[in-house]
Amino acid sequence: MDLLPLSQDQLAAVVASAQSPTELYSTLSEYEGEACLLSTTDGEQAELLSRYYSTFFFSHLLTDQIREARLSTKRMPQDLLQSDPSLQNCLNLLRAVWQRKYEQVYKILRELPWSEPLKPMVQSYEAHFQEKTLKEVSRAYEAIRPAAAATYLGLDPTAAQQGDPVIMQKFLACGWTWEEETGLLHPKPILEDPQKDAQLYNELSEVMALIGNRRA
C-alpha cells in the first residue's frame, strides 16, 4: 500500500501506529527519498525535516543499529544537521552511545532540551538503553560494586554504594545476589524478553497517539 505524503500529522500517525521499533524503522526508511526532496530553506519543510530525521534517528537506536545511525547522519542535509537543535542533540547522543560513555548518555537524554513530540521516544530509548546495558553487565561481570553497577544504569552511585533499598532491589529482582561481607553484587545473566520490549514500545505508541489527538 502506498504511503501518504510526508507531513507532521502523517509522521505522528506513523509513530503512533507502529507496533514495534522495527516496524517504525521500516516505514520511516520508505520516506527517506521524499525527505531528500524537501528544502531546508523553507521554514515549514525544515521543521518537518528536523522532526523526521530526529524520529528516524531514534528508530535506529531503538533497533540497535548504531553503525547505520552514524551513516544516516551523512545522508541528512548537513546545513540542517549543523544548525538544528534537535539534530545536534541526536548527534551528541550518538557520539556518547558509540563511545560507550554511559553517564553521558543518560545526561544527554535527561537534561538536553528535547522537543515535545520527541520526548516519548527519548524516554523509550532511555528505558531501552538501560535494559540493554543491564543485560550486558549481567553477562560481563561475575562480581561488581553497587556504585559501578549503578553508574552503568544511570542511577545514583553514592546511594547504591550505601545500599539504597530501591536501587539494590532493581539488581536483586534480576536474580543478582548481594554479598554483604565483600560489598559486591554477583550478576546473573538475564534472558531476553521480547514481550517486555514490545510492552515498552506499545506504551510509547499510546503516548504518541495522545499527543496526536491533542494536536488534532
From TrEMBL:
GO BP field: COP9 signalosome assembly; protein deneddylation
Main location: cytoplasm
Keyword line: Cytoplasm, Nucleus, Signalosome
Segments forming domain CSN8/PSMD8/EIF3K: 49-190
One Gene Ontology CC term in the entry: cytoplasm
Keyword Mitochondrion: no
A Pfam family: CSN8_PSD8_EIF3K
Domain of life according to the entry: Eukaryota
UniProt subcellular location: Cytoplasm; Nucleus
Protein known as: CSN8/PSMD8/EIF3K domain-containing protein
Organism: Aspergillus carbonarius (strain ITEM 5010)
Lineage: Eukaryota, Fungi, Dikarya, Ascomycota, Pezizomycotina
